[in-house]
Amino acid sequence: MPRKTKQTTCDPKQSVIKIFTTFTEPNFSQPWSMSQQQKCTGTGFAIDGRRIITNAHVVAYHTAIQVRKHNDSTKYTATVVGISHDSDIAILEVADDLFWESVIPFALGTMPLLQQPVVVLGYPVGGETLCVTQGVVSRIDYHQYAHSNKENLIVQVDAAINPGNSGGPAIDEDGAVIGVAFQGMDEGDNIGYIIPVPVLEHVLADFEKHGKVTGTGRLSFRWQSMENDALRESYGLPVSVTGVRVVSVIPTSSAAKGRILSDNDTVMAIEDEQIAVS
């Protein structure tokens, strides 16, 4: 798994990859037939272990994947070795040794901070060459991912992110990756989103441990926030206590089988991290 070391001084453009995907979506209304074959492009970037990171939605339902380096007209065949639709992350490999010449992998940085400068690299619509946009981290939140419709950690930036940028690296001033560009918002200006490094590291650790991506964990209970003073008082909790009330425990979960949680319990912290609700 890539370590958090400062990147070797190099031209990062050579490690940003354009991805060409040929895909065929299933026809869910007529499962005995397939939809028409289509093509799309996206972005990826090289990391340690001769692997390429991109978005899951860039390679979803693929029948063929090719990749191309900056200022190189040669396309190489790539293979998906791991994919997390929950986290919208895919791991690719390229077997041809020629592809990896002059490619120096990106190092992974840390969780970005508010107002931290960020540079997004990719191949958005409107041209064939690499595009570089700059901005700052505008917001850190927990929000829905468009590809999976599931919520996860998300970072908002004001650097331009357009179709084709998906899967590209968002880097800090040291050239380390702090996130993966993956979606924007049509209803607003200068609103783009990146998947922060902790989510990417979770997917990579899962892949290293199991040889495949097994998924992302979910809470084993339904909860209600305890931000209301009267609500906390009715359950005999001090007004200063924050947390969530366990409404019900999912019967098939490990929490239910091990009798770890019960209905109406209050969860105030997870691994020494206090739960604050707004």
Protein described:
The strands form 4 sheets. This protein has a 7-stranded antiparallel beta sheet. The chain has a 6-stranded antiparallel barrel with strand order 8-9-10-13-12-11. It starts with 15 loop residues before the first strand and ends with a strand. The N terminus is likely disordered. The radius of gyration is 21 Å and the shape is globular. It contains 4 helices and 18 strands. Helices cover 10% and strands 37% of the residues. The longest helix is centred in the last third of the chain and has 14 residues. With 278 residues, it is mainly β.
**Span of the ends, CA to CA:** 36 Å
Tally of DSSP β-strands? 18
Helicity range of the residues? 10-25%
> What structural category arises from helix and sheet content?
mainly beta
Strand composition percent: 35-45%
Order of helices and strands: EEEHEEEEEEEEEEHEHEHEEE
Summarize the main sheet: 7 strands, antiparallel
**Mass-distribution shape:** globular
Strand order of the largest sheet: 5-4-1-2-3-7-6
Mean pLDDT: 88
The Rg value, from CA coordinates, equals 21 Å
List the helices and strands and how they pair.
Blueprint: E1 16-23, E2 38-47, E3 51-54, H1 56-59, E4 62-69, E5 76-77, E6 79-84, E7 89-93, E8 117-122, E9 131-144, E10 151-157, E11 169-171, E12 177-184, E13 192-196, H2 197-210, E14 221-225, H3 229-234, E15 244-249, H4 254-257, E16 266-267, E17 269-270, E18 273-274
